[in-house]
Amino acid sequence: MIFSHCAETGSSSRVPRWAIAHKFPAQCAVTKLTGVDIQIGRTGAITPVAILEPVDLGGVSVSRASLHNFDFAKSILKASNKDDDVGLTKGASVMISRAGDVIPQVLRRLEDDVTMKDVKEFISLRPPSTCPACGSKTVFDFVGGRGKGKQPAQGEAIANSVEQIGGDMDEQISITASKRDSVGQVLRCSGPQLLCKPRAVGALAHTFSRDALDISGLSEARIQQLLNATLIRTPADLFDILDKDLDLFQNITELPGWGNKSALNLKCGTQKVVAEGVSLSKFIYSLGIRHIGVQSSSLIASAYTSSEAFLSAIDEASKTRIEQDNATELLFSALIGNGDNKESIKGIGPVAVDSLKFFAQNIELVQAAKELAKRIPVHDVVSRAERDQVLDKDLSTLPFHGLSVVFTGSLPNEMTRTKAHQYAIEVLGAKSTPSSVSKTTGIVVVGEKGGKKADNAKKFGIKIMTADEFADLVEKYKI
Q: d(Cα 174, Cα 188) in Å, to the nearest integer?
């Protein structure tokens, strides 16, 4: 019965909802809470973090643990009021564990004899009305989509900021959650992500990551150094520094932990991107638009086919008031679909479209996207209809049509695994590219040092193709 229910749950592009895992109970420990810090993520999520007296837990010294959100923190820490504030006293005893034996978390506050006799020992759990890093107003998350009723769309300026609500802080959160469909009380910075330094570090790291522009040698720590030295502010700045400005390039080599070799390696990485360019899907993914992942970027790329068409839609949306009821239909008709175009937008939902619309309303981010498109070549996408016309063939004649393809071992010509998966689906017509071999697998592509997947393919009698044969097939069908 359980397995029947699991089969019905299906899976998404990144989550196998049918999978069940049994885990042993997590180890727990008791320590003292010494403070609460604020952490700001790439998407603007403002998370309270518990600062703890270091305690050994499963062989690891734990001194910090996430409190998820302010409402949750007040609940598990049994917050109380003092001088019109809400929180608890410093030194309160808390029980912690490591979720999945990895991530430290606070389970609950323990009863102890610590009292609120000294305001200096009081730890506030009041949600900030402005972002601690950039000063922008903070807003709560709400349900998106255009379903039944009048639910506000995700990303629109629908969340009342703490400053705007007025009244007691605790009542504000309660009122906000009850009047609108709140999603977990996630508090976010509403300012542009490239102007908020903690968010900018994550945003730039996302832009230069393997699935985006794929520039190696740029960890978050090094990006932080470049930001602190005011050498870069947007992704396009990196290409300007390394290609044009010798003085600024010299400044990079003088940063702590850098040198001529590190800077030259970074320059080679950027020159490779400039020389080879990136696909439209990678360019869209590199923009860091919320709710737009690798799969969604690929679908959006197939709908617009060129960076000019995509940026034109974004540019047009930036000039249109987001409150207009028909704004989405007017600005992103290529994604919403009409007539024969519906197939190209399968998999793009209202939340993704609303995220694009919200991105377009941020002039700073739109300008950064345009500047990046000027610095690097962005390859157009050949739509399936155009590819079929050129090949004069139906999709069903593609070599991997309807098959699940699994890769193992290294691939030739420095082809990345991500690129191989993309070629298998977009060029050769594969249905999916799972990570493991099963009886339903159609083909296993075996490269150098292929492992157990190749043995399993032989065991199940699955067709095996060498990595070189796969590369030749891609060249044959690629346009």
A: 17
Rg over CA atoms, the chain: 26
346 CB-near residues (< 8 Å, 6+ apart): 299
What are the residues whose beta carbons fall under 8 Å from the beta carbon of 157, sequence distance 6 or more? 322
Q: What is the DSSP string of 278-319?
A: EEHHHHHHHTT-TT--HHHHHHHHHHH-SHHHHHHHHHHHHT
Which homologous superfamily does the CATH classification assign to the domain defined by 194-276? 5' to 3' exonuclease, C-terminal subdomain (1.10.150.20)
Q: How far apart are CA 325 and CA 314, in angstroms?
A: 17
Read off the tokens for 208: 């230069």
Question: 385 is written with which tokens?
Answer: 């209809």
Q: Does CATH place domain 28-124 in 3.50.50.60?
A: no
Tens digit of each residue's pLDDT (9 = 90 or more) over 361-378: 888 899 999 999 999 999
d(CA 412, CA 435) in angstroms, rounded, equals 19
> Which spans in 350-403 are helix H?
350-360, 363-375, 384-391
Give 209-254 pLDDT, tens digit per residue: 988 999 988 889 999 999 988 889 999 998 887 666 566 777 888 8
Assess whether pLDDT exceeds 50 at residue 29. Answer: yes
- What is the secondary structure of 96-138 as a DSSP string? EEEETTTEEEEEEEPP-S-----GGGEEE-PPPSB-TTT-PBE
Mean pLDDT of the region 188-200: 89
Say how many CA atoms lie within 13 Å of 177 toward its Cβ: 13
- Domain 391-477 matching CATH 3.30.420.40: the answer reads no
Q: Residues 88-136: pLDDT tens digits?
A: 888 888 999 988 778 898 999 987 655 555 456 788 899 999 999 999 9
97, 96, 37: which is closest to 70 by C-alpha? 37
Please tell me the predicted confidence (pLDDT) of residue 466: 92
Domain residue ranges in the chain: 28-124, 138-190, 194-276, 281-381, 391-477
pLDDT band at residue 85 under the 50/70/90 scheme? confident
